Amino acid sequence: MRIIQLITRPQRRGAEIFAVQLAEQLLTLGHEVYVISILKGPGNLYFSGNFIHLDLPGNGKLDIAGFRTLATKINEIQPEIIQANAADTLLYAVAAKYFSNWDFRLIYRNANQISSFIRNKAQLIFNQLLHRQLHAVVSVSEKSKQDYLTLFRPKHILAIPIGIDPQEIELKLPVGGKGEMQNYILFVGSLVPEKDPLGMLDIFRDLLPTHPDLKLKFLGSGPLEEKLNSKINLEGLEETVEIIPNQTNIFPVLSQAKVLCMPSKIEGLPGVILEAMYCQVPVIAYNVGGIGEVVKNKETGWLVEAGDSLVFKESILEVINSPASELEKITSAAQSLVLKNYQINQIAKEFERFYHSLICLDSHRELPDALA
What we know:
Blueprint: E1 2-7, H1 14-28, E2 32-39, E3 50-56, H2 64-77, E4 81-85, H3 89-99, E5 105-110, H4 121-131, E6 136-139, H5 142-151, E7 157-159, H6 166-172, E8 184-188, H7 197-207, E9 215-219, H8 225-234, E10 241-244, H9 251-254, E11 259-262, H10 271-278, E12 283-286, E13 302-304, H11 309-321, H12 324-341, H13 344-362
Parallel strand pairs: 1-2, 1-4, 2-3, 4-5, 5-6, 6-7, 8-9, 8-11, 9-10, 11-12, 12-13
Helix pairs in contact: 1-13, 2-3, 7-11, 10-12
């Protein structure tokens, strides 16, 4: 198959990272794969195949010239499958259909709880018009799939999770392996309202009276960074809280954290949770999106009802104070779950079967069970 993975911009964000990892796996399966990034971005994404950077300005207006540019690339490549991976990729892909003279199957990868981003009726109607142009939808979790179904009527929809590459992680771990856990808790993700880094700072501040040596690291960037820095300075936490910019390799920091905390208000299924579970780092997260499909409370991590900051804090204390033998039972179970169900080579084969099934539809062959 000839496949295009469409990403918003070259950046180290979950949707883009996974799209590139998937593209690499599809290459190894023998397909001709292109990654096209639409807007200008910071870079730091590597793909060994054809990586095309359109570097469009993304000025927030209808970008007719940009739609035509993408359509020209589509005409040149002549793909059978185009997968739009979140954010602006859907608008550009749908618009490019009308400027392109090539017939392709358009898939949208739904990586979040889409209803949380629909603010008003006009926005809903506009999105319904876009989503009607899709041949199929892949949701990152069953929760995201059901959320999508509350808003749209897709022709075909399937839940396929994200995956991790254990071999790649092993190569990125510090020399000598994982090493000893350090005395810090870790937040990994964009510094945006839906990830709630400010709420994480409040929870951490309440831990300090009883655990003054504990530290907090934020690993990520985003629009709340200035506000977060101001709050850190205002509360005199400069010596205990650190903001680390996005990293090409997060594993030296992630693998030695005492606990990964994810206080998100909205999520699909974050890859960093699976990465932490593989590294046997305890995970504490709110039960939003598809997180509860992998984090089982006191079995593979600590799952807290959304918004309950008191229980979140108590869960951190439980992890900090638990004997290593008790933590190992949970982190080992978490690692086993990831190795069994969430390896990227397995996930890529699910996508491959899904793509094939869409092509079978057009050739009037029998509909595979995945789409029936």
